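Bumping my old thread because nobody answered last time. Still need a sequence for this structure:
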């Protein structure tokens, strides 16, 4: 049976650089028995079942489609990297809530996966800079309220990274949870990939510059 490793992002924690580094090493990882799904795969038209419906539940056809793909994967492990599993960065800002629905979303994905992932990875960053980074990123392509209008709600938001980890632990008690700070892995993505996927770091190549930096 193919095992699962899931990287949840989060947004603005160096996720894009990690995903591109994973893709760069796809051949080496395949030889190590690891298949990769990044955003290009999870958001592909033929894999629309992976997108959580508005009702917050995956139906039987979606669960069956995932099980069929997982069963047909010749690799011994499937590594999935998809930051939107936790929720929407834009919704976080507009609601001034920090992944408020993460627990319910993880419960839905637990049903989709069918079995607990072996390991779940989560990148963190300084909590205050998360909000300013997310706002700056979204402002490049979306209409957003003035940050000053959002700030009062953000200042009283009580949820933080520990709550996200608690959500993961509650939904996936049998999974190993691996967390790392953005500030601690810059320039060390090959080592991070090795630790996340249980492969030797030797021979892995990684991006040496931030993507979408803010």
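Sorry it took so long. Here it is:
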């Amino acid at each position: 049976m193919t095992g699962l490793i899931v990287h949840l992002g989060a947004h603005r924690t160096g996720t894009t650089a990690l995903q591109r580094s994973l893709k760069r090493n796809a051949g080496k990882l395949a030889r190590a028995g690891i298949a990769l799904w990044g955003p290009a795969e999870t958001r592909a038209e033929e894999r629309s079942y992976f997108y959580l419906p508005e009702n917050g539940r995956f139906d039987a056809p979606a669960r069956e489609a995932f099980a069929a793909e997982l069963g047909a994967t010749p690799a011994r492990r499937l590594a999935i990297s998809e930051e939107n599993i936790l929720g929407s960065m834009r919704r976080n800002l507009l609601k001034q809530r920090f992944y408020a629905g993460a627990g319910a979303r993880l419960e839905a994905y637990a049903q989709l996966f069918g079995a607990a992932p072996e390991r779940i990875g989560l990148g963190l960053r300084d909590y205050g800079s998360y909000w300013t980074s997310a706002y700056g990123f979204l402002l490049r392509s979306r209409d957003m309220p003035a940050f000053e209008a959002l700030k009062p709600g953000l200042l009283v938001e009580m949820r933080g990274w520990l709550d996200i980890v608690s959500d993961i632990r509650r939904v996936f008690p049998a999974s190993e949870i691996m967390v790392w700070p953005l500030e601690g892995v810059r320039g060390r993505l090959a080592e991070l990939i090795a630790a996340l996927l249980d492969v030797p770091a030797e021979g892995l190549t990684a991006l040496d510059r931030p993507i979408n930096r803010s």
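The domain at 3-197 is CATH 3.40.50 (Rossmann fold). Let me know if any region looks off to you.
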